[in-house]
Amino acid sequence: MVRGAISILTAASALLLGACVARDPAVSSVNAVPAGNWKIERQVDRITGAPLSSAFLTTRNVSNSTVVFPQPAMLQLLCFKSQPTVRIAFPFKIGSVHNTELGYRFDDKPGHQAVGRFLANYTSVIIDDKAEVAQFVGELATSNTLYVRIRSLTAGRSTAEFRLDGAPAAIGAAYAGCPVQSAQPAKPAAKKHASAN
Predict the structure, then answer these.
(1) Does residue 143 contact residue 136 with C-beta atoms inside 8 Å?
(2) Which one, out of 35, 78, 100, 104, has a CA that is 20 to 30 A from the CA of 126?
(3) From first to last of its 197 residues, what are the pLDDT tens digits of the chain?
(4) In the sheet where 156-163 sits, what is the strand order?
(5) CA trace torsion 130, 136, 138, 140 (10° rounding)
(6) What is the pLDDT at residue 103?
(7) Who's near 40: CB < 8 A, 6+ residues apart?
(8) For residue 105, what are the β-bridge partners?
(9) Contact 118, 95 (CB under 8 A)
């Protein structure tokens, strides 16, 4: 009986001590700073000493053709492996690699079919092609709303609409370590002048 009581007290103490331990900021967004509708995360990677910055935005304006009560979706801007990346995440399956397409539209501007990469969990898609990210971020900076539509042969249709207040600050913070380069047209080759003899 005494051993049982000691075991219970030991387990209870361990639970209480575990509750007192703070989560590592690298895996928690508790310290995120608001910027309009965005949350900006700024931590330092304890391995490399480099900044781990990102900005994210959530919306409850989400629909799916097979999920009756869809939960919020997230738009995230981040540097991943020193490359600017856009991540759109849903809490349910949105498709798979070979049978899904991603489209988006800012405000009343022309829409785009994006080259997105669907992750193995089938709930997230990323845009990491440099030209695609530059186009996305260029329009994001001057827009009020973003409408995302995903069509899949296996997971139906999913949509999300985001209010973008604070986007310029979010872009600046998220991509401070990997600036987005706009696609530059190739410069024409300089003409060589024949020297006079």
Answers:
(1) no
(2) 35
(3) 556 555 554 555 544 445 444 555 444 455 789 999 999 998 877 888 877 789 999 999 999 888 778 799 999 999 998 899 999 999 999 988 788 899 999 999 999 999 889 988 899 999 999 999 999 999 999 999 999 999 998 888 999 999 999 999 999 999 998 999 875 544 444 444 444 44
(4) 62-64, 156-163, 145-152, 100-106, 112-114
(5) -150
(6) 96
(7) 32, 33, 34, 53, 54, 55, 169, 170, 173, 174
(8) 147
(9) yes
Write down how long the chain is.
197
Q: Say what the pLDDT of residue 66 is.
A: 82
* Ramachandran assignment for 133, one of left (phi > 0), alpha (psi -120 to 50 degrees), beta (any other): alpha
Cα–Cα distance, 151 to 158 (Å, whole number): 7
C-alpha span between 62 and 162 (Å, rounded): 9
